[in-house]
Every structure is written in structure tokens, then in C-alpha cells.
Design goal:
Strand order of the largest sheet: 1-2
Radius of gyration: 22 Å
CATH topology of the largest domain: Arc Repressor Mutant, subunit A
Helix content: 55-70%
Distance between the termini: 47 Å
Structural class: mainly alpha
Mean pLDDT: 77
CATH class of the largest domain: Mainly Alpha
Low-confidence stretches: 32-37
Largest sheet: 2 strands, antiparallel
Number of domains: 2
Number of strands: 2
Oligomer: single chain
Strand content: 5-15%
Length: 119
Amino acid sequence: MKRKIIDHYRKINSNKGKAEVRITHDDSETDGDWLEQRVASKSDKNAHDQIENTELGMAIFDCLGNLPEKQAEIFRKKTIENYDTEAICNAYDITPSNLWVIIHRARKSMVECLESNWF
């Protein structure tokens, strides 16, 4: 029984991260026509999405300006510019665990700022 439970949860979790495709039959259409519902692709963006992304980007950089200087620099390098952890630690003479504490605090501050200023 224990193995069956483990297998059940493994099966459920193996489907995570995959795009879901559902095919439904619409009775109002002619018999045999099938509609495919799909996850929106990146190429399906419209002008509204682009404006919203621009506004979000401006809000993110405004909130980034509210962080302490060192915290903002480290957050920008790690999250936005994708610097390597080791490179950041060497540049600021900090440990990897200290880096992750700084990143965590910056993320919390960014979330609070974005919730009050953008959402």
C-alpha cells in the first residue's frame, strides 16, 4: 500500500510544468468539429500586454530605487543581469548564504512596494 501511494504522488508530480491542452466538443458547431484550447504563446501579445509590461518595468525600477544601494545592486546583478553567485560574492566580499539573505530581503521589499504601487 505504501508503494502504491508513493507511485500515485510521483505520477501526479510528473505532469508538473507541462502545458495543458484540452480538446472539447462544441455541440453548437457541426458534428465532428473540434476546438482546441491552448496556452497562450508569447507571440500572441497585443498592445495592451506591451503597455502593461512597460508599466510593470517602470514600477520595478522605481521600487528598486527604494532599496538600500548595496541591496539594490546585488538584486539587480543576480536577478536581472543573471550574474553568477560566485562573481557577486567575490565582488562584494560576502558569503553565498549572506547573498541569499540579501536577495530574500530585497524580494520581500520589492513585493511590498509593487503591491502598494503597481497592483
